[in-house]
Design goal:
The chain is about 10% helix and about 50% strand. By secondary structure, the protein is mainly beta. The protein has one domain: Beta Barrel (Maltoporin, Chain A), CATH 2.40.170. It has a 22-stranded antiparallel β-barrel. The chain has a five-stranded mixed β-sheet with strand order 3-8-9-6-7. Strand 6 and strand 7 form a beta hairpin.
């Protein structure tokens, strides 16, 4: 039995532990040493308020992981970085497909075929919006200055999609009069998996003295696979989810005068992964109940495929930032263009086969390899013009206008060679052609969904110092959105739809923040803030696939409204004598939370509104320079996120576990991380510095969808007689995703011109269950998305100046 760790969270023990960490008496020598270290520490500057501030002066909850933090931990993904950040949860669905939630604000797992669903966390690369629902960009972290995590709704300055918070990747900018270069090489291996590697390089070159410089980055990462795929006739393919990421960026800084800075930049990245991190527990073609086919019990880190799967993401980002500093204000203009082409190609043979059984097709048709191809093409233009005061008066301000235009073309096809012949033979000659609706032959399902989304916003924020200790912030944003979508389908599994829908939304989102300096080391803050997420229209159900019960339950859902959130929060930031604390308590009142459910046999997902939901909790990040050599940090959160309303279906039954008091999906109630770094007094092997670092992360139990908390929800029956199985056999699955913990260790040797890092991630090889997938309501396939196994690696960095 796994330990519950509940005893760790008793208030009395927390109080004792924190008091011991933060308030332990120091000797006079230690105190003097730590005061000297405090003076030498460079302040972390962030731009979370659209102006540069020291992180301790930002009047809300924020975390910044610096370049040094990222490099020493060996972090290569957002999931890696998030381990030491409170109140953030990552669902790793594979490279380029991570889903982020903050502070318990979650609609559950959003899957590949819901392009109309909007993100709940805004993601920015410097000043450029790069958010895209379903596909959070998996950018490389090489040569980043920092990653800023802004917790809580950021609707005033960052708009829609930041209802839970905002993530900002801040890159190192070109430096005008200095040459700098760096090369990084890595090799790694995964337990019972493959080998990975990466090669990365950066160069900063002055081109014209005092006027022009260039900074360029290139990288290639080879992903090690760790999932094995069984196939027909006993075939076994190892490490099928390997792949690569290739890319680079180049930026120029041009300063024609001392008051003007112009920074154009272009980023190119290509991701190609050969499979997914899905661990299956049932497959129509591979399960313990078959008799005319080999009976198969799928094991840890295994799946069953008839076709190789593939994910590709080609990304182009071009942006330009121009800044002008006057005596009155600093003006900033930002233009960004994004072009992404994403293809998810997966083995849908079991899905198509399950429908074929329902239609009475022969076994030869059921076993046809079927390739579901989800393609997303996105182009987005955004403009922002803002001004910020630059004097030292009691009143400071920032104001701006933002516009964007997004075209998102989503297409889904199901090429299944030979399928039309079986269709005509079973259902009558000419049937396949009659339902094609203009799409290609031998593809029983096709959909085309072009979206056009435009928005305009005007925002502003005032900060007034009433006294030397009290600053009050007032901010608001007016927004206007319009979305148009056309939905066209064809093929035997479709309704042959052809319809156009549009949604509009406008309004204000605001916040009020008070910051009070209690003394030289403690700042208090309190706020009331708002956030919002746009609504949309559900795709029509695939009625020909639905059984009568699912059609009755889910057939009435069409539009869903905007989601709004009001956040009430108090916080404290404190630092001094080698320690720091960032603590916040929050209560979020969510109206019309957009919840996603699997529509069972319909092979569709629906979104709908829950009138009332809440998320409340405490988050903390504590740091301590325990000795001259030892630095310790402790971060975590306790969150209670639950529905405040009950939603009923057309039969009067509670819909999908959405009942007053039930948990929201994807939210661990408890999560924390402890990390420490120790630097040796006498560096080893002739190095100038030697350090060891360790981090431990605990993530509490979660559910993937609200319906997972219903009694008996984990008992699945396919209802399909195939391969000697009757379809009445039960596959029992625990839908409450187990808590998990991971331990990472690393050690580094720092020399004048190079650095060596050795690391072991997931030391105890924990097989973390991240989410649960059910293909066609579990009739075709059941599986978990899982985390990476133990990874052992080494990184070499060379510096040139």
């Amino acid at each position: 039995m796994r330990p519950t760790y509940q005893h760790l969270f008793k208030p009395s023990l927390i109080s004792v532990a924190l008091a011991a960490v933060l308030c332990a008496p120091l000797s006079a020598q230690q105190a003097q040493s730590q005061m000297q270290e405090d003076e030498a520490v460079e302040k972390i500057m962030v731009t979370a308020t659209k102006r540069s501030l020291a992180i301790e002066d930002v009047p809300f909850s924020i975390n910044a992981q610096t370049q040094k933090d990222i490099e020493r931990s060996g972090a290569n993904s957002l999931e890696d970085i998030s381990r030491n950040i409170a109140s953030i949860s990552i669902q790793n669905l594979g490279p380029g497909q991570s889903q982020v939630s903050m502070r318990g604000v979650s609609a559950g797992q959003i899957v590949r075929d819901q392009p109309g669903v909007k993100e709940q966390v805004g993601v920015y690369l410097d000043e450029s919006v790069i958010s895209l629902s379903l596909f959070t960009p998996d950018l490389d972290f090489f040569d980043l200055s920092r990653v800023e995590t802004l917790r809580g709704p950021q609707g005033t300055l960052f708009g829609s999609g930041s209802i839970g918070g905002t993530l900002r990747y801040i890159t190192n900018q070109p430096e005008i009069n200095s040459f700098d270069a760096k090369v990084e090489v890595n090799v790694n291996t995964k337990t019972d998996g493959g080998n990975g590697n990466h090669v990365k390089a950066m160069v900063n070159v002055p081109l014209v003295d005092d006027t022009l410089a260039m900074r360029a980055v290139v990288y290639r990462t080879g992903y090690a696979g760790f999932i094995d795929a069984l196939g027909e006739n006993g075939v076994l393919e190892e490490d099928v989810n390997d792949g690569f990421r290739l890319g680079g960026r180049v930026a120029f800084k041009y300063t024609p005068t001392e008051n003007i800075t112009i920074t154009p930049r272009i980023i190119l990245q290509d991701i190609s992964v050969n499979g997914s991190n899905r661990q299956e527990v049932f497959n129509l073609f591979a399960n313990p109940n078959t008799t005319t086919r080999p009976a198969i019990s799928l094991g840890e880190r295994q799946q069953y495929l008839l076709l190789q799967e593939d994910f590709k993401d080609e990304t182009l980002i071009a942006d330009l930032t121009a800044e002008y500093a006057s005596n009155f204000a600093n003006f900033t203009f930002v233009y960004s263009y994004t072009d992404r082409d994403i293809l998810m190609s997966r083995d849908a043979s079991s899905l198509s086969g399950s429908v074929s059984i329902d239609l009475g097709f022969p076994d030869e048709a059921v076993l046809l390899p079927s390739n579901l191809r989800d393609q997303t093409q996105v182009t987005q233009d955004t403009f922002e013009l803002r001004a910020a005061s630059n004097d030292e008066s009691d009143l400071t301000w920032v104001a701006g206008i933002f516009t964007s235009d997004t075209e998102r073309n989503y297409q889904q096809t199901l090429p299944t060679p030979g399928y039309d012949a079986f269709t005509d033979a079973t259902l009558g000659a000419g049937t396949a052609a009659s339902v094609a609706n203009g799409f290609e032959a031998n593809s029983p399902y096709n959909a085309s969904l072009p979206y056009d989304l435009s928005q305009t916003a005007v925002f502003g924020e005032l900060n007034y110092a009433f006294t030397d200790k009290l600053i009050v912030t007032l901010g608001s944003r007016w927004y206007d959105f319009e979305e148009t979508r056309r939905f066209t389908t064809g093929g035997l599994f479709s309704n042959s739809d052809d319809q156009t829908d549009s949604t509009t939304s406008d309004g204000f989102t605001s916040r009020v923040i008070a910051q009070y300096e209690l003394n030289d080391t403690v700042n208090l803050n309190a706020q009331v803030s708002q956030g919002f997420r746009l609504g949309g229209v559900n795709d029509p159900l695939n009625r020909s696939l639905c059984n009568t019960q699912d059609l009755d339950v889910f057939g009435g859902f069409q539009e869903y409204k905007d989601e709004t959130l009001t956040n009430y929060e108090i916080g404290m930031k404190s630092s001094g004598r080698g320690w720091g604390a960032n603590v916040s308590a929050f209560y979020a009142d969510i109206e019309d939370l957009q919840v996603t459910l699997d529509a069972g046999s319909c092979s569709s997902r629906i979104s709908f509104n829950v009138p009332k939901s809440t998320s409340q909790g405490i988050e903390f990040e504590l740091t301590r320079q325990a000795t001259k050599n030892l630095f310790v940090s402790f971060a975590g959160s306790f969150i209670q996120a639950e529905f405040g309303s009950t939603v009923f279906d057309s039969n009067g039954d509670v819909l999908g576990g959405v009942a007053d008091g039930n948990r929201l999906a994807s939210v661990p109630e408890t999560s924390f991380a402890i990390s420490s770094t120790y630097e040796f007094d006498e560096p080893l092997f002739g190095s100038s510095a030697t350090y060891i670092q360790g981090s431990y992360q605990f993530v509490g139990d979660r559910i993937t969808q609200p319906s997972d908390q219903i009694a008996g929800a984990g008992n699945f029956q396919s209802g399909l007689a195939f391969g000697g199985a009757t379809g009445n056999e039960t596959t029992e699955v625990d839908l409450m995703l187990d808590q998990y913990d991971t331990l990472n260790l690393s050690t580094g040797l720092v020399y004048d011109e190079f650095e060596l890092l050795f690391y072991v991630n997931n030391v105890f090889d924990e097989n973390a269950l991240l989410s649960f997938d059910r293909e066609r309501g579990g009739r075709a396939r059941l599986g978990y998305r899982i985390g990476e196994p133990r990874t052992i690696g080494a990184t070499f960095r060379m510096f040139f100046q």
